[in-house]
Amino acid sequence: MIHTYELNGYHILLDVNSGAVHLVDKLCFELLSFLTPPLSERCPDAALAALDGRYSKADIAACYGELYRLYTDGLLFSEDSYAQFADQMVSSPVKALCLHIAHDCNLRCSYCFASTGDFGAGRKLMPVETGKKAIDFLLKRSYGRRNLEVDFFGGEPLMNFDAVKEVVAYARSKEAEYGKNFRFTITTNGLLLNDDSIDFINREMSNVVLSIDGRQEVNDRVRARVDGSGSYDAIVPKYRRLVEARGDRDYYVRGTFTKYNLDFSKDVFHLNELGFDQISVEPVVAPETAPYALTEDDLPAIFAEYEKLSRELIAREKAGRGFNFFHFMLDLDQGPCAIKRLRGCGCGNEYVAVTPDGDIYPCHQFVGMEDWKMGSVLTDTLDLEKKDLFARTNIYSKPECQACWAKFYCSGGCSANSLQYAGSITKPHRLSCELEKKRLECAIMIKAALSE
Amino acid sequence: MKHIKTLNKANLKESAAKGGCGECQASCQSACKTSCTVANQKCEKK
Ligand code: SF4
Ligand code: SF4
């Protein structure tokens, strides 16, 4: 399988199964449209005839020769040899927890997927004992895995920050005994950050996600407080303080774009102007009926915006003023292994979410869907049948993904969105797919541009 | 090559043979969370 596209003056050829990315010239690009495997040593007559006149015969033959060489080297039309691994996808140890330390929030963001923090089940804080039980659960169910992740999530986790501290201390106290390495992360809306929490986060958390949507008017329109006032003025100075004190450890500011700001590249650059260089601004995922929801009609505008953003990022990078835009980050050489790419997010298998009541769900997006409850950390129960179902969910169990050129980059998308918007965990959500593919095209094009 | 420039090492197939240790970071791709594209993650072995 191959994917070819033209973007920003570059002609790009992606060989899906080998992962090879080739930058080709116009002749090569045109020639490719006539080729289907298996290739023979001689250029097909139909191609010669069609390109004759615009290119010299010698050029066409030379170009074909180069393509043929890629083909014999396994870098063009390479075979799909991964289905065998997909069959081996079995239940894995649990290695990551999303700990819903607070089902409560001090903001009322209009697009919140968690019903303004309580996931539709009442405002609640996780008792420390439940948090410790979740750590015990992870220590036991992770078997031989050494690196364990715990993400403090909400709601707003700072609303239960004493519990965060105690759970972190408890987990750390078990590391040596169990031979584990905990990596903590936290996602916050920033309102409650103070010197004490900044200090703790910078000491203990391997990554911190700071929510902000960009320009003040964009942010404050959706990220409003209970009384309707905006959050921008309160959080920006706190984020700056945190990031400054953090040194070179990971963080990112992350925003959401909606129908209200289809010119979201301005928000990306605004965040950079505020002094942040690790930035993520992502499409809202919401039912089509919501006024802020993105729909297929918005795709052309969003695509144009992604292109604009990539051109500007290239220019800044070349001028030595580059920054990281998360959705364009891509490592063409040293990325994760193919097995990881087949598996995707690991939801319900390697990764589960735990609610304030200790209930286990496949991931934070499933929280509150009773049918998908998988057990409880209080009773140390886990529904292994459901776990197996998720373990078997990979790109080869989804027909759309199997046929998709983006599969080894995307890994099959978000099961929760697939369930909510396409009706099944194995049925990709088309709008998300279109956005994902566009971002990948941009990301690869940026690599091509920066390779010159 | 005159018409083609290959941008990477294309080692996806090799990575399947020695991969799957599971020590790498979990990778929620949802917009509401960490939102990693799997492809932007690091391998723990390297
Ligand atoms: S873009 Fe869509 S179809 Fe393609 S791999 Fe991702 S989820 Fe599957
Ligand atoms: S199902 Fe979606 S929201 Fe849940 S962990 Fe996977 S990518 Fe994230």
Structural account:
By secondary structure, chain A is an alpha/beta fold. Helices cover 40% and strands 17% of the residues of chain A. Chain A is built from 17 helices and 15 strands. In chain A, helix 7 packs across helix 9 and helix 11 packs parallel to helix 17. The longest helix of chain A is centred in the C-terminal third of the chain and has 21 residues. Chain B is an alpha+beta fold. Chain B is built from 1 helix and 1 strand, in the order βα. Chain B is flat, with a radius of gyration of 15 Å. Chain B starts with a strand and ends in a 28-residue tail after the last helix. The model of chain B has no long low-confidence stretch (mean pLDDT 76). Chains A and B meet through strand 3, helix 3, strand 6, strand 7 and strand 10 of A and strand 1 and helix 1 of B. Strand 3 of chain A pairs antiparallel with strand 1 of chain B. The complex binds iron/sulfur cluster (2 copies). One iron/sulfur cluster (SF4) sits at the interface of chains A and B. One iron/sulfur cluster sits at the interface of chains A and B.
Give the tags:
heterodimer, A: 452 residues, alpha/beta, three-stranded antiparallel beta sheet, 40% helix, globular, B: 46 residues, alpha+beta, 1 helix, 15% helix, binds iron/sulfur cluster
